[in-house]
Amino acid sequence: MKKKLITVVISFGLLLSGCTEGSPNLDSSPEDALKRIEVGNEEREINVYGSLKVNKELELLVLRGAMNNKDIWVADVHKEDGRWVAKGIVQMNGPFEGSDDIQTVIISEEFGYEVGYVKSGVPLTEDLNTFEIEGISDWKIWIKKI
Fold this sequence. Notes:
By secondary structure, the chain is an alpha+beta fold.
């Protein structure tokens, strides 16, 4: 009797894990989650220029193509219940006029990161992760864990 019960429990567990893995709605990577930011993005080509894993539940991606092919974005993608979900997206099309060489745009103390711009040729500290964008030579996006 115990063997049958154990066999049934193991079979049920395998069945559930198979259903979860085969579900097309689960986003298995942060890049997959980007396609669900806006309705209609499933077919749009998204170019990811780089990412920074803040922790095992959060990754930030620098990309182009979420809404159109020219705007640049930083997406905040979280892992929830085993799937990646894009929680926020911020447009990052360049530093503001008259800004310093290094400019902070986003500070998220809750999740432990900062995002901003740095002008090209400026000496960088080791804690800044920079991302070059195709077609842009005078500035970069930086992300820092805090």
